[in-house]
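Lab notebook page, bench 4
Experiment: in silico fold of construct C2
Operator: M.H.
Input chain length: 270 residues
Purpose: comparison with the prior construct
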Amino acid sequence: MPAFTYCLNTSTIRPTPLLKKIEVASRAGYSAIEPWNVEIDEYLAQGGSIPELRRALDGAGLKVVSMIALGDWITTEGEAHTRALDECKRRMAQAAELGSPSIVASPPHEVVDLAHAGKRFTELFAIGESMGVAPSMEFLGFVAGVHTLDQAWTIASATGHPRATIVADVFHLIRGGGKVDDLLRIQGSQLSIFHINDLPPVPDPLAQRDEDRVMVGEGIAPLPRVIANLRTIGYSGPISLELFNRDLWALDPLNVVQEGIDAIRDLVEA
């Protein structure tokens, strides 16, 4: 039975300071963390440094397994595209400094030509490979374009690279009009990280927003089937708790992340 790495996506306990997020993730029993480039930039702007951050992570026994995110790399042209790639390189360099093997490549909100997106992802992937950080294609259930697992894999597979991967998420699988059984269309090695969360019964799941997500086990998503599907495809990577729930942001962060890992363990280890 494949084992999973329990990971905390730091969006779950915004606006807690980054070093505090590392502390509570470690205390709750996570072994990995998935931070956002934006919050690392904020930490650096406040006088922190990457070596200090690495020491904090090492002291907490946490690995950075993924970072978020790369944007504007599909639809920009000319000088705007050059600037977008420069920013992607900066963010990938940041990920490399923190030892992250992967970074999320996000799609735009508008409809895109998948063949063109595949060429752009191939370009982005080659840059990342040269820096030691692999971009991983994300789909977002609420956007007009890349909102399904199949679309994300069409883009990622255009590289022809055996290490090309996508990011999948309970919320986005359902919000994009798909099913959790869509996971069975890929192999475990084609998934870099899996974001776990739950969806409330209202509003309509096909109209929900990021902030509507609820704690694992408190919604209507068929989470036991999700875990079964991940095991069926042989996935043994990180399961990252990713929520944007403002009610949870107002609570004690240690209590939130402890509740999260307990819920994931109950689901996975039952």
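Observations: The mean pLDDT is 97. The CA atoms of residues 32 and 200 lie 27 Å apart.
Next step: discuss at group meeting.
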